[in-house]
Amino acid sequence: MSTIHWTENHTHQSARWHSENAAPLPQRTIVADDRTKADDAYRQACEGTALLWRGDFHNARQLLQAMGRRIDRKPPRLSTSPSENFHLHRRSSSHRARVLGKLLVPLDDDYTLTLRRAPNVRQACLEAYGPSKGPMAVSLRELLGVIGAHQWRLKGIDVPALGTRIHPHYGVFAPVRGEYVDLVAHTPLPPAARHSAATSTAFDLGTGTGVLAAVLAHRGINRVMATDISPRALACARENVHRLALTDRIDVSGPGLFPEGRADLIVCNPPWLPARPTGPIEQGVYDPDSTMLHSFLAGLPAHLRPGGEGWLILSDLAEHLDLRTRQQLLDALQAAQLHVVGKIDTQPRHPRSQDAADPLHTARSAETTSLWRLIPAP
């Protein structure tokens, strides 16, 4: 168990260290409070020293913002290479997270945050971390993410294709990009699913919140098997299925990719970028070496019923960033002995695609999200 140590009021103290992104244990920790200057805090954090906050909670948030502004004074340099820009952007983001992650807050053994004007974070922490294992220290930046995730879980995210809301959990990719949901909601079902609605079966691989499984059930699929490798995603999907009163139509199982048996329709929306995630949220975006993509393609023919289709939902952002070529994708389809019977495209609607200040704007503005309709090659 990792433990941080510091001296306070001439007394040696310690607490369990926790980081969802597996940030390394700070080698040195000092106490900071309302008297701490932003320049000093920024310098200490850049040198690797963690600052355990003992002052006002709102002042801590302001200090975090001030440290962020000092990081932003040195924007990352840009290259003419899209892939190099991507890696520079990720390196800059990693540096930012590393520095801002040095501002820590203490949590008591019941997740109480004993700072002046601090919110009640016990329920948010219980949802994110599970039952407490005793007092611990976390970065303020991570705790703010936990609080934000709790609010999303309470309020939910409107999904027009369902006419209701989906409630994401901490660490589970939220369906904030509605274009991929709409693709699944409006693409014509394969003949095998249309002609035998009473016995139709679909798999939703990598279900996350369960949103696509719910859309398939909403469209009349009789039985949907939803899988994921993440225990958090499985718990989230089960809760959403229960909220939507679809427990008689949707089975959530895992951890794993393919369930047993065959289906008339198999849907997969894998992470779109072949890179390594640095934390639980990024697992919905980054897929090292396109492992999930290749696993889906390789297993698809053996799990489809006659007349069935596989639907691959994939953005071409990786192609615009020179992380994967279109030919590599086509070669992967051929290697899996799959035939493309159709492709439906849509343009992104999220704000970042219109943000000219985004260092990846050129690639994002050209992005297309596609639903590839696949069948076993004849």
Brief rundown of the structure:
With 378 residues, the chain is an alpha/beta fold. The chain is 35% helix and 23% strand. Strand 12, helix 10 and strand 13 form a beta-alpha-beta unit.
Can you tell me about this structure?
By secondary structure, this protein is an alpha/beta fold. It folds into two domains: 3-152, no CATH class; 157-376, Rossmann fold (3-Layer(aba) Sandwich). The chain contains 13 helices and 15 strands. It has helices at 38-46, 57-72, 82-100, 122-129, 140-155, 178-186, 191-194, 211-218, 231-243, 291-303, 317-320, 326-335, 361-365, and strands at 3-8, 11-17, 28-32, 49-53, 103-107, 136-139, 157-159, 164-166, 201-205, 223-227, 250-253, 263-268, 304-315, 338-346, 369-376. Helix 1 links the parallel strand 3 (28-32) and strand 4. It is globular and about 75 Å long. The N and C termini lie far apart (55 Å). One of its GO terms (biological process) is methylation. One of its GO terms (molecular function) is nucleic acid binding.
